[in-house]
Design a protein that fits this description.
The complex is a heterodimer of chains A (432) and B (382). Chain A is of the alpha/beta class and 432 residues long. Chain A is built from 18 helices and 14 strands. Chain B has 382 residues and is mostly helical. The chains are: A alpha/beta (432), B mainly alpha (382).
C-alpha cells in the first residue's frame, strides 16, 4: 500500500523534471552553444591576406560544402588534395547537413569554416553582418559572367568567386512528346504555343506542364513579361506593375486551363519528380534535374528547351553559389590560394560536368558546350538573359509570403498577390 | 526549477534546526550552533546541480533575453561591445501592422487550434488506454503497455517520415477512406481550415462582411479558419505519439487507487461507468491536471514535426511560433526578432498555464487528495 501510493509522487517529480526541460527548450539560446572562444578571433577585421592570416605553408583549411552525394564531395576533396600537396597545407572538406545553421553557429562562436558555399540569395545578409571577407579584387583577372558578378556584389564590392550556375529550362519527356504526335518544330517559343502543347500533352493521368509553386519557377514568367519583383539594384519593389502581373496572370491561366498544375496537385514533391514518374509531360527546372534524373529516373528520355518568350522576350531565372571566405578565418591567404587554383578552364569544366551545373567563367564556355549533349544546351543559352534571385537584406520573409500567395493560384487574383507583396516589400526596402 | 528546490532544501533544514527541534534542555541558540553549518553543507551538496542549471539554463535564457533587446547580427558574441541595446524595437515589429505581425498572428492561430485539439484528445486517449490496461480481465498487459508507449520512445523524425507517407495523396490513409467511398484530401497540400470547410458546406464560401475586420493583422474570418487539413494530420501524429507517455502517468496513478473503494462501490451496486465517473476520475484529478499542464506547455512549442513535415506550408497554415522563431533567426538572420518571438511564446505559455491552474483549482475543494477521496466515497455510498 505505502509503496503504491508513493509511485504517483515519484512520477510527479519526474514530470516536474521533464517540465523543467521543456521550459529550457522554450527559452533556450539559439546559436551560442560555444561562447568561450568568441570575441578574440572574430574581431580581426576585414583586412585578410596580412601577416596574421598566415601563409599557405602548414595551413589547415576547413571547407564546408552543401552537397550530400559522395561523388561531388569526392571531386572537391580530390581538387583540394591536389592543391594541398603543392602548397604544403592540409584541407578538410566536410558536407553540411544544414548549411544555415552550421554557419550561424560558426559565426557566433567566431570559428566558422575557412571556406564555404554561399547562395546568392543569402550573400547580402552575410555580407552586411560582416561575416564574409570580400576578396573579389584578388580575382579581377578571372572572366566571370557579369551577371554572376552582380549576384555576389554587395555595396559595390565583389565578395566571393561565383562557383557555377544553373538556369531554368523547359524539361520535356520526349516519349510522351512523340506519343502525342509532336515534333521538334512544335517546341513552344511563345506563351500561346506553350498553352497549346501543354493542352495537347494533357491526358488522363498526365498533366501537360507541372510548375514548381514558388517564385523560383513562377518568377520566370514575370521576367518574360518584362517585370520582376524588385528593380535592378534591389532598392524598390516593382512587382505591382502591369508587366509582373502579366506574368502571374499567364501562370493563373495555365493552371485554370487544367493543362498545367503545381507539383502537389499531382502528388509530387517537385517538378522533377512529376516528370520522372510520368505524371507530367513537361516541367520547368534547372541543371540539377540532370543528376536527379540520372540517379532516380535513369529510364526517362528527356530533353531541355529554352523557356518560351513572353511579351517582352526571353526570360529565365538563374541560381548560383560562390566560394566564400570567412572574415574570422585565420587562413585567409591559404583559402584564397585554394580558390584561385579552381579557376582554370580545365578544372571548371571538369567540376561542372561532375556537378551537372555550368562553369562560371566565360573562357570555359566553349570547352563546356563542346562536351554537353545538344539536348541539354538550352540551359546554358539562358546565361545571357537570366535574372538572379531577390537577395536584399530582410527580404526573406517577404519572399516566403510571396510563395504562400503564389500557392493560392489560380484562386487568388494576380493583382492581389502583386499589391500585397509590394506592400510587404516596401516595409523592408522603403520607397513607394 | 533546480534553484527553487535547492532553496527548499535550505529552508527545510534551517527551519528544523532553529524552530521545530528544540532539544531537551538546550536553548534555541545552541540548536542554531549545532545545525548552523547545514545551510552551507546543503549548498555544497546541491552545487553540481546549481552549476549545471546556471550554466545551461539561466545563462542561456538571460543571453537570449539580451539578444531579444539588442541589434546582434549573429557575428561574434552577443555580449561584445559592438552589440547595441535597442530597447523593445524587436518586439515592436510584432505590434504594428505588417508582415511580421501577420506571420506571428497566423502562427498563434494555427497553434491555438493545434493545442485545442491535441490536449483534450491526447488526455482522453491516454486516460482511456490506461483504464483499459488497468482492467483485471485484460491479458498480455505488458505487451500492450509497451506497444502504446512505443511511439513515445521512437525518434520523432522516423515517425514524421512514416506519417508523410501515410498521409500522401495516394497513401494508405486515403486508400482506406476510398474503401468507404470518401475521396481523401491531398493532406499536406491542403491549406483549407476545417471550420471554413464546414462553413463552405453550408454555402458560406466567401469572407462574410461581419468577419472582415482585422485583429492583430489577420481578419476575423482568418482567425476562425480552424486547423487546416495539413495541420489535422500533424495533430493526428502528435496525439498518437504522446498519448502513450501520458497513459503511463495515468496508469501508475490508477494502480495507486485502493481496491477497497471500488469493492465498496460494487457492493453498493455502482455500474462500471458510475465507478469511473464518480471514483476514478475524481481521484485522478491531480494526475489529470499534471497531464493537461504538461500537454499545454509541450504543444504550444510544437516544432520538430513542422520542421520535418511541412515547414509551415501549405499557405503558412502549419506555421507555429517556435518554427517562426527558428526561420526568423536562422533563415533571415533577424536574431533579435527571433528571440523576441520565443519570449512572447514563453509569456503566452506562462499566462495560459496560470489560467488553466486557476480554473482547475476553483472547481474542486482544494483540501487535497485525501479529503477528495473521502468525498467521493461518500458520494458513492449515498
Amino acid at each position: 500500500m505505502s509503496r503504491t501510493t508513493h509511485r504517483p509522487r515519484i512520477l510527479t517529480l519526474g514530470a516536474l523534471a521533464a517540465l523543467a526541460l521543456v521550459l529550457t527548450a522554450c527559452g533556450g539560446g539559439q546559436g551560442f552553444s560555444d561562447d568561450g572562444t568568441t570575441s578574440s578571433s572574430s574581431d580581426d577585421g576585414g583586412d585578410g591576406g596580412d601577416g596574421e592570416s598566415g601563409g599557405t605553408e602548414g595551413a589547415e583549411l576547413s571547407v564546408l560544402v552543401a552537397t550530400g552525394d559522395t561523388e561531388s564531395l569526392g571531386a572537391i576533396q580530390d581538387l583540394a588534395d591536389t592543391w594541398a600537396q603543392g602548397a604544403g597545407a592540409t584541407v578538410d572538406v566536410q558536407p553540411a547537413s544544414d548549411m544555415n545553421q552550421q554557419l550561424s553557429q560558426g559565426f557566433a562562436a567566431g570559428n566558422p569554416p575557412d571556406v564555404f558555399w554561399v547562395d546568392a540569395s543569402l550573400l547580402p545578409t552575410y555580407a552586411a553582418a560582416g561575416n564574409l571577407w570580400p576578396y573579389g579584387e584578388e580575382m579581377s583577372d578571372v572572366d566571370f559572367y557579369p551577371a554572376l558578378v552582380d549576384s555576389f556584389t554587395y555595396d559595390g564590392e565583389l565578395y566571393c568567386a561565383p562557383k557555377d550556375f544553373s538556369n531554368l529550362g523547359l524539361v520535356i519527356n520526349t516519349d510522351l512528346w512523340e506519343a502525342a504526335g509532336l515534333t521538334d518544330d512544335d517546341i513552344p517559343t511563345t506563351w500561346d504555343e506553350l498553352q497549346t502543347v501543354a493542352t495537347t500533352l494533357t491526358t488522363d493521368g498526365v498533366t501537360g506542364l507541372v510548375i514548381g509553386d514558388t517564385r523560383d519557377r513562377v518568377g520566370a514568367f514575370m521576367v518574360q513579361a518584362g517585370g520582376w519583383i524588385v528593380n535592378d539594384d534591389q532598392t524598390e519593389m516593382t512587382i505591382d506593375t502591369p508587366e509582373a502581373i502579366a506574368g502571374l496572370t499567364e501562370v493563373q491561366e495555365l493552371l485554370e486551363s487544367g493543362a498545367a498544375a503545381f507539383p502537389k496537385a499531382v502528388d509530387s514533391g517537385w517538378g522533377g519528380e512529376a516528370i520522372g514518374t510520368g505524371k507530367a509531360a513537361m516541367t520547368i527546372e534547372g541543371n540539377w534535374f540532370k543528376s536527379a534524373a540520372g540517379a532516380d529516373y535513369p529510364d526517362l528520355n528527356w530533353r531541355v528547351a529554352e523557356l518560351p518568350e513572353g511579351p517582352a522576350g526571353k526570360g529565365t531565372l538563374t541560381f548560383t553559389q560562390c566560394w566564400a571566405i570567412a572574415d574570422a578565418s585565420q587562413n585567409k591567404e591559404a583559402a584564397l590560394d585554394f580558390i584561385k587554383s579552381l579557376y582554370t578552364p580545365e578544372v571548371q569544366v571538369d567540376l561542372a560536368n561532375r556537378f551537372g551545373v555550368m562553369p562560371s567563367i566565360e573562357s570555359a564556355r566553349e570547352q563546356y558546350v563542346a562536351g554537353v549533349p545538344e539536348s541539354e544546351q538550352a540551359w546554358l543559352a539562358g546565361a545571357d538573359y537570366a535574372q538572379g534571385p531577390v537577395s536584399a537584406v530582410g527580404m526573406d520573409p517577404v519572399m516566403k509570403e510571396l510563395d504562400t500567395l503564389i500557392q493560392q493560384l489560380p484562386g487568388l487574383a494576380p493583382a492581389d498577390i502583386a499589391s500585397q507583396t509590394q506592400e510587404n516589400g516596401q516595409a523592408v526596402l522603403g520607397g513607394n | 526549477m533546480a534553484l527553487t528546490s535547492a532553496d527548499d532544501v535550505v529552508v527545510a533544514t534551517h527551519g528544523r534546526g532553529a524552530d521545530q527541534a528544540p532539544r531537551p534542555g538546550g536553548p534555541r541558540r545552541r540548536g542554531n550552533r549545532l545545525y548552523g553549518r547545514e545551510p552551507v553543507l546543503a549548498w555544497v551538496f546541491v552545487a553540481p546541480m546549481v552549476v549545471v542549471a546556471v550554466l545551461f539554463l539561466i545563462v542561456p535564457i538571460l543571453m537570449a533575453l539580451w539578444v531579444s533587446v539588442s541589434d546582434w547580427s549573429g557575428r561574434g558574441s552577443p555580449l561584445a561591445a559592438t552589440v547595441g541595446f535597442v530597447g523593445l524595437d524587436n518586439y515592436a515589429a510584432f505590434f504594428s501592422p505588417g508582415l511580421a505581425q501577420r506571420d506571428l498572428s497566423t502562427s498563434i492561430r494555427n497553434t491555438f487550434y493545434f493545442v485545442l485539439l491535441v490536449v483534450p484528445l491526447q488526455t482522453l486517449l491516454a486516460l482511456g488506454l490506461a483504464l483499459v490496461l488497468n482492467s483485471r480481465r485484460l491479458r498480455a498487459k505488458s505487451f500492450f503497455r509497451t506497444a502504446y508507449y512505443f511511439p513515445s520512445v521512437t525518434s520523432s523524425v522516423a515517425i514524421a517520415v512514416v506519417f508523410l507517407f501515410m498521409f500522401s495523396a495516394s497513401g494508405p490513409v486515403n486508400s482506406i477512406l476510398g474503401l468507404v467511398g470518401i475521396e481523401g484530401p491531398n493532406w499536406f497540400a491542403d491549406p483549407r481550415g476545417l471550420i471554413h470547410v464546414v462553413a463552405g458546406a453550408f454555402g458560406v464560401d466567401e469572407q462574410p462582411a461581419w468577419a472582415s475586420g482585422s485583429i492583430a493583422g489577420i481578419s476575423l474570418w482568418q482567425w476562425l479558419a480552424g486547423p487546416s487539413v495539413a495541420m489535422v494530420s500533424i495533430i493526428a501524429l502528435v496525439v498518437w505519439v504522446s498519448a502513450g507517455g501520458y497513459m503511463l502517468i495515468f496508469l501508475s496513478s490508477l494502480q495507486g487507487i485502493d481496491e477497497e473503494v471500488n469493492e465498496a462501490a460494487v457492493v453498493d451496486g455502482a455500474s462500471t461507468w458510475q465507478r469511473i465517473r464518480h471514483i476514478t476520475v475524481p481521484i485522478l484529478r491531480p494526475t489529470t491536471t499534471l497531464v493537461v499542464t504538461l500537454g499545454l506547455i509541450g504543444t504550444w512549442q510544437v516544432f520538430d514535426q513542422v520542421y520535418i513535415m511541412s515547414q509551415g506550408n501549405p499557405g503558412k497554415t502549419t506555421l507555429t511560433p517556435a518554427y517562426l522563431s527558428y526561420t526568423t533567426s536562422f533563415g533571415s538572420a533577424q536574431w533579435g526578432q527571433g528571440t523576441a518571438i520565443s519570449f512572447m511564446l514563453f509569456a503566452l505559455i506562462v499566462v495560459l498555464t496560470i489560467i488553466q491552474r486557476a480554473a482547475t483549482r476553483d472547481r474542486e475543494n482544494p483540501s487535497g487528495r485525501r479529503g477528495r477521496r473521502r468525498a467521493s466515497r461518500k458520494e458513492v455510498a449515498s
